Amino acid sequence: MTPFSRPGTAEYAAATASFQLAVPVEPAGAFTARSVDDVVRAVAAARRSGRPLRLTTTGHAMGRTGPLTDSLLLRPVLDTPVRVDPEARTARVPAGKTWGDVLPETTRYGLTALHGSSSSVGVIGYLLGGGLSFYGRRFGLAANSLRSLTVVLADGEVVETSSTQRPDLFWALRGGGGGFGVVVAAEIDLIPMHRIVTGMAVWDPADAARLAPVWQAWARTAPPEITTSFRMLSLPPLPFLPPYLAGKRVLALDGAVIAPAEADRPAARRIADEMLSPLSAIAPPVANTWAEAAPEALAGVHLDPAEPVPFHSDSALLHEIGEADWARVLEAGPNLIALELRQLGGAFATGAANGGALDRFAAPLHYYGVGLAGADTEQDLKAVRTALEPSLTGFTAPNFVDDLDRPQRSYDDEIRARVERVRHATDPTGLFAGDAAPARDPD
């Protein structure tokens, strides 16, 4: 008997719920797995049905691999808890957990993870897609913090993967683009984090083109303890936003400086001041909330939406932007909610000794543009990409791709071929093939 529910049932509705409301989620059947045994049962049922099996957790990137028509959809949301080992500085995270589930468990021990800017994002999907953290210039991509992954394969076997167990599969899972099986648990390294300096400085958008080259010049030699995001924001007039953001178009600079130990706090405050001082000398900010804070505050600084929304977005890894190009780039997306340039470099670029298929970003900048789904947003995204043309590297960060038609290349042809060999060896019948992100190059 199949565990997959049909359209029109409450179970189907729960299993197909998605953060990305602009993408139809209409599989032939859907199932929420609450245990590893549930996952094994669902994989067996999909194999018997002859239908492809697709996976989701929070649905932030639901559109990345295209329509689900004629597929079965599995949502693994396991009932087992997050388990932290404070002595080993590790956490075991079951499938379906978000960073909002994990961080309260780690911070009680003075530890944190290389989490993203949103607490509502699924942990495992974020890790498998590389993972850009505001701690990343010091510690690298979050995928490099993975110690092991537990996977249900297409034949129903439950296997452990690590650098010593099925190392080829462990390598491919970390950034290979999916289509290997169902990851039901991840063991990750944690890092000590006593305090951070974090917040957001806000300027009038008329000052953006003057400030951007100064920020970029600072970013070239910035210490790895700091990671920042330079953004043009046009936020709706929501009641929880401060008056300098609600319903306004602004330039915002947010991020974090780490202070892993008590002794690091003065240096962290100095690093933040050294970033903001030359910018403030050019144009005083309208508001500045950068201050010392507990690590758990970081998940709220970037103002990522907590509730599902219909959105369109685009992203790319970039070379540096020419000084004469900044005004054109920053003015190209007036209808976007956010046009973001994320600072990379540092440990983002150095990779890991035993990294996976994607273990580094050599580019100095990452672009992400997002707006409410509609023609205005699509027009703006095209305009921004055109303005960025001289700086495009041809590569992307997988976590930020949410549309099948967007460029998706994140590694070179040699790595692509190796990933495909592992994918075919692991899933020879292609049960999970629809879940593999296509390596689409820019037009």
Automatic annotation (TrEMBL):
Pfam family for this entry, one: FAD_binding_4
Q: Which residues form the FAD-binding PCMH-type domain?
A: 23-193
Q: Which cofactor does it need?
A: FAD
Q: Which Gene3D superfamilies match?
A: 3.30.465.10, 3.40.462.20, Uridine Diphospho-n-acetylenolpyruvylglucosamine Reductase, domain 2
Q: Which UniProt keywords apply?
A: FAD, Flavoprotein, Oxidoreductase
Lineage top rank: taxon: Bacteria
InterPro entries for this protein: FAD-bd_PCMH, FAD-bd_PCMH-like_sf, FAD-bd_PCMH_sub1, FAD-bd_PCMH_sub2, FAD-linked_Oxidoreductase, Oxid_FAD_bind_N
On whether Flavoprotein is a keyword of this UniProt record, the answer is: yes
GO molecular function (one): oxidoreductase activity
> Would you identify the family this protein belongs to, as annotated?
Belongs to the oxygen-dependent FAD-linked oxidoreductase family.
Name of the molecule in the record: FAD-linked oxidase
Q: Which organism is it from?
A: Paractinoplanes toevensis
